[in-house]
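Quick note —
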Amino acid sequence: MSNTTHAKLSIRDHARDAAHMTYVYPVVSRRAGGVSVGINLNPNNACNWRCIYCQVPDLKRGAAPVIDLKQLETELTSLLNDILHGDFMQTRVPEDARRLNDIALSGNGEPTSAKEFPEVIQLIGRVMKHFGLVGKVKLVLITNGSLIGREPVQLGLQRMAKLHGEVWYKFDSATRDGMARINNTRQSLKKTAEHLAQATALCPTWVQTCVFAHKGAAPSVHEQQAYLDFLAHLLAQGVRLKGVLLYGIARPSQQPEAAQLSALPEAWLEEFAQKLKQIGLAVSISP
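Predicted structure written out below.
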């Protein structure tokens, strides 16, 4: 597969059609610090949440469609072969990012809504073993965690753990109002706590939090304290979180609220990170 006609990848462009495939796409990830191979199990742009900072155009409520496992395996094998043995890095990737960092289940909706989720993880493991990537390249699930109570999802997480994978669990607010405003979900905080505990028991788990100014205002003191108290309570209960991935807005939202959102100064993120460290959490910042 020749890539000479394609534009170079950028941290500000995570187009899902970058490799002209249905399920698999490459990105240069600022959080990963290199090339991330994305797996999109929601090519129908359907998600059970609607986060106001989401960069998916034409987002709709729903679940993933039926996944063509054979096609997914063919696409993943093809792209990895081009990255590892072809001219992909030289022709598509900026020189300072020419390393394969991870394979990430992310895409245009909630990946665990795919009924074939455990089979997908098994498939990815098979391909990773073929290329000798297990233990060398991270396998990451980016999820809102809302479906972790389902047995097939738990089976998938168990399989991920055997591949040295990790969960990046979306958690943007610890208040009901905040979750409704930011994520457009009515999920209870009790359920969120249960799911986070389940996730950490099954697979190494990071909390992933997007912070931004809404209508010109940073998260309130009340929001900040509720968030800190929620995570501190989990830690006190023995929930073993790996830490927090704290990140800002790098690409514009494709949701109706886009004009209301703006990036916070890096100093704000640094200050909040210090508060997280004080309660015993490791923190990684991506402004």
